[in-house]
Structures are given as C-alpha cells and as structure tokens.
Amino acid sequence: MGPKAAEARTRTPLTRERVLQAASDLADRDGLEALTMRALADALGVEAMSIYYHLPNKDAILDGVVELTFTEVGTEAHGRGTGRSQADAAGWAPAVRERILGARRVLLRHPWAPVVIDQRKSFSPAMVRHVDGIVGIMREAGMSHDLIHHSLHAIGNRIYGYVQELSDDGQAPPPGQLDEMQSFAPNLAAMLADVAHVDPESTLGWCDDQTEFEFGLDLLLEGIERRRLAEAAA
Amino acid sequence: MGPKAAEARTRTPLTRERVLQAASDLADRDGLEALTMRALADALGVEAMSIYYHLPNKDAILDGVVELTFTEVGTEAHGRGTGRSQADAAGWAPAVRERILGARRVLLRHPWAPVVIDQRKSFSPAMVRHVDGIVGIMREAGMSHDLIHHSLHAIGNRIYGYVQELSDDGQAPPPGQLDEMQSFAPNLAAMLADVAHVDPESTLGWCDDQTEFEFGLDLLLEGIERRRLAEAAA
DNA sequence: GAAAGAAACCTCACGTTGTAAGGTGAACAG
DNA sequence: CTGTTCACCTTACAACGTGAGGTTTCTTTC
Lengths: 234, 234
Hints:
Chain A has 234 residues and is mainly α. Chain A contains ten helices and no strands.
C-alpha cells in the first residue's frame, strides 16, 4: 500500500550467475537443507517466484551450483604447478594424485556438493573437463583406454575429491555405545578401542579424514600402476 | 457414518516389522521417492498417522529398512560357504571379497538402500555386524588394527556392496552429446568412443557395473595384501 | 454378560516445500 | 501516447511430515 520508496535503490538485476552464487553461498553457510527457493530469494532480496525467470526450476539450481563448484576446481588445478608437462609414464600417478587432491580441497569448502552430486548424479561440463584432464594424463602415460576406463570406475567418487561423507567430523564413538558393541561386534569394538588409543590428540577426533582419503587413493594408484606396467610389457 | 461392515475382516494388526517390510517392498517396487507416509499407510490398508503408533517418525522407518536390508546381508553371508575357517593369512582376501560381493548381491535387490545409507549415514546393528565380520577375517590374518582401520576407509562404500549409484544403468552416452564433448573433453570423448566399440553387445549398455566393481575391489585388496606383508616382515 | 481401561487407529489441521497461473509496474519502441 | 517486452510479484495449490486430540476395538476384571 505505502509508497515504499526506500527500495527503489538501484537494485542490481538478477542473473543466472548471481542466483547460483547466492545459492552456493547459502548452502555453504546454512547447509543444503536450508537451500529453499524462499530462503534463496530472501538472500537475494527478492520473492521466490522471481528466480524462475532466470532458472527453470530447483534442479537447475542444484545442477548450476555443482557446475559452479567444478569451475572452482578447474581454477584450483591451474593454479598449482601440475601442468600436463610432467605427465610422462613415470609421473602420471603423482599428477593424477594432485589433480584429485586439488578437487578435494575445493569440495572441502563446499561440503554439500558431494551430496548433491551423487544424489542427482549431475554431469556438468566443468565436471567432465575435470575428468578429461585426468584421462589425458593417463593417456599420455601410455595406458589403454580400457585400463583407463576401469581405473576411473575403480577410483570412483575419489575422482571428485571425496568418498562417502566429507563433513563426517570423524568423532570418537561414545564409550557407552562401544560397550554395547562389544557383545555383538567384538572385532570392530576391539579395533576402535585400539585405534582410538594410538594417537589420542590427532588432528580430528580419532581418525584423520585426509589421511584415510590419501591411503585409499594411493592404494588404488599403486594397483593401477602395476596394471599399466603389465600392459606395457605385453 | 455408514456401518462399513465389509472391512471388519480379521485385519492383522500393524507391527513395527510389518510396517518396515511394507516400506521395503514399496521402495523396491516404486522407488524411494514413492515411499511416503501416506503411500505406505495405503499399502498397509491404514491411515498415515496410524504408523506413528509403531514408529516414531519417518527417519525411524528409513533406519529400519536399512537394518532390515542388512539382516538380509547377514543371512546371505551364512548361506555361502565363507565361514571364518578359511580366513588364514593367505585366504583373507578371497574371504573378504566374498563377504563384500554377498552384500552387493543383496543391495542389488534394493537399489534405494545405498541412497538411504549415505544420505542418512545410518549405523544399524546388522550393518555393524557385517563390518565386524570383515574385521574379524582381517584380524585372523594377523593384520594390525591400524592397518585394518585404514583398509576399511580405503574400501569405503564398497564394504556395503556398492559404490556411487547401483542402478546406474550404465548406458551409452547419446552420440550427439559425445560430439559436443569432443570439443572440450577430447581425451574423455576418445576413451568413451573407444571403449564402447570394444564389445558392442556386452551384458549392459557399454560397461558392466559388476566388472567395474570387482576391478576396483581387487585393486584395493591387492594393495592391502602388500601392506599386510610389509607389516608381517617388520 | 457389563464396565473400565488400554491399545490401535483415525480425523483434522498446520507449516513447509516446489511451482503453475496470472497480475503489475518500469523501460522502451513506434 | 500507446503498445510490447522484460523483470518481478501475488495468489494459490498439491504433496509432504507430523502434532493434537477424538474414536474404535480389544482385553481385563467383576
């Protein structure tokens, strides 16, 4: 009713990019479940339905933020000195490793991204580019397409810099629950008790996510390297 | 109002188990997104709110169906001849492998389960028991708790018989999209084109999910075995 | 049998979600 | 001045999970 003149401020018009950036920021700050159309509109100083003028629906927004995240992955890879140059036969594994850890660094800043990625199994161009870079490195090491293909599947989620949940906050199991576990899962209980004691004040609660990630990654890369050598010998 | 006498049929009363079984069946048949309180109640011949008498909320139902699925995994493991007996130092890997592939067989019958598991990261007793069995096998092979711990993380999702999406229907990418990809992801495009041609009438569209799963699993098991030998030598 | 009490189920309603349909005001073209 | 187009808003709806409280059905006790 009122002349609400105060909001006639040179309001920068919405764009696809501004919406997606706001969506990413909102998810970073308040979590994925807080990313609703109304909340997003609110963050943009706009009504919910206005967003639909720039993006068809919420799925497009989810696809969009994943795309945006992997654009970030792309710049992360360029920043480091991991050019294609050192991707000879010997150095392919470290090169791939660095690419993957780079992606992981970005994804750690957007913990909601993994969730969106594999609940929507989105394939954005930026994502494809990331995979393509890794394929390129492997190809330059002389691996067959078949071996590369299997290897991508083997590495799985890890290509994108995560596996399972990132923000797992690997915290120690409550002692009460561990006692209960002793009765029907003695091996697991023993392991947990043992491992928790080894380094009581580790970086995280009781297991360092990054270490685990790299352990698994290296296991795979070693195995792939052995397959590559077998292939080269044939 | 009406005397609705027809429905006075000896209706078996709801129980937690009946609800969970119906939920699992419903998800099997119509997919996870079809598993709503109202639809579930309908399948049970009951109103939605009646379910709340037996289960506190929907999360409890999701936890419950995962539990139920892993009970199935437990019986699957017992059926096979993969007792602890052959879990000596040499045979630990095949034993673990069989346990994992057994879990996979079950999870393939419930494609929604992986989604629920890692979107809710549920830890049911039956799930814990499954992991415990694997820890037991590794322990009997003389591995340290530390190595076992790392190994579990390395295997990751695969412990539960899946990785990423199960019902991926790994079908060939549409040729149009592949052409477009050629411009900005040449390595990937080349690989896809190449691999698709190798065996045109494979079991699945163009890559066999089971083969990929086992490839990755074996890569990891081999690597772990080498770590175990290194540990034993020390 | 009847009456009391508990157990099992239902009705109604609310808040939240994504989004279809269509309205409103500003900028601009003729 | 008049229409068209763009950008945004208002209203509304169906589907979701679920709180509050009413109603039916079964069981127990006399």
